[in-house]
Amino acid sequence: MSIPLVSVFMLAYNQKDYINQSIESILSQRTDFPFELVIGDDKSTDGTREICENYQRKYPDKITLVLNDKNLGIGSNYVKTLDRCKGKYVAICDADDYWIDSYKIQKQANFLEKNQNFGICFTNNYNLFPSTKKYPRNAKKIPEISDFQELVYSNYIASVTVMFRNDPLPGSMKSWMCELPYCDWPTYLWVLRNNRKVYFMPDITAVYRKDFGTSAVLRNQKSKIGEINFQILKNIYSITEFEDKVHDLEKSLLKYKIGLISSYNKEKKYFKSFKMFAKLMISKNFKVGTKFYLYSLKVSIFES
C-alpha cells in the first residue's frame, strides 16, 4: 500500500450495534488519494473486535487494527492509536458516529493542501439523540476562521467532523493525556501552537451520536467537565512549546476557575467552590472572583 495522505482514526469499545455503519461510511469515501483506517479497539467484549477483524480481513491494505490485550481506557487508547496513523492528515470518526458525505475527506484534504497556514478543517454535522431524532448543529456562532486564541476557551469542534495535520504529540503531553476521558481538544491546541488557523466548512458531512457513552455521563455533571478542561490547560501551561501562549492560557484558566465556582455552587458542592474562590482571593483577580462567587452562591441558596 502507498503511503496514505489521510489516516482515519477510530476508537472502539463495545459498540457492535454501531460500528458497521461507521466503518462502511469511511470505506465509501471517494478520493483521488490513498487513505487508511486505523481502529483502536480497547478490548471489547461484545463482538466489536470480531467485526473489526472481519473488515480487516476484507480490506487488509486499507484497515489497520490496534488491538489492546487489556482495557487501557480512552486516553491511553487514543494516544496509542494516533501513534499508528501514518497520514499527513488525520480525520476522526469514533465507532458510534458516522459520515454521510462521500467526499468529506477529499474536500478537507483539498483545503489543507492549498492553505498551508491552516492546521485544522472541520465541518457541520447532525446531532443524533437516543430518541432517534436528528437535528443539524446550530452553526451561527461558529467562526469561519479562528485560531488558538478562540479554541483555548472551549472546544467547538465536533471530532467526527475534523481533519488536522498529523503533528506528532510530544512525550510531555502523552504522559498526562493517557489519563483523560477525551483527548481531541489538547491535540487541536498542539496543532495550533505555531499560529496555524482553523477553518469551518459549513457542509454537513457527519452524524454525531449525542448523549451516548462517556460523554453523556460527563454532561450530567458540569463541574466534572470543567475540572478536566482546567487540568488540561494547567498541563499545557507547563509545556515549553506553549510559552508564547501564556497570556491566552492564563485568561482561559481564569474563565474555568470562575466557571467551576459557579458549577460547584449550583451542584451544592460549597466546600469545593470556596476552595477555588480562596485561590482567586490571593491573586490579582480578587474582585472578579468575589463577584462571581457571591452571585452563584446566592442563586444556589435561593434555588434550594
Automatic annotation (TrEMBL):
The keyword Protein transport does not apply. Pfam families: Glycos_transf_2. It comes from the Bacteria. Residues 7-134 form the Glycosyltransferase 2-like domain. One of its GO terms (molecular function) is hexosyltransferase activity. Keywords: Transferase. This is Glycosyltransferase.
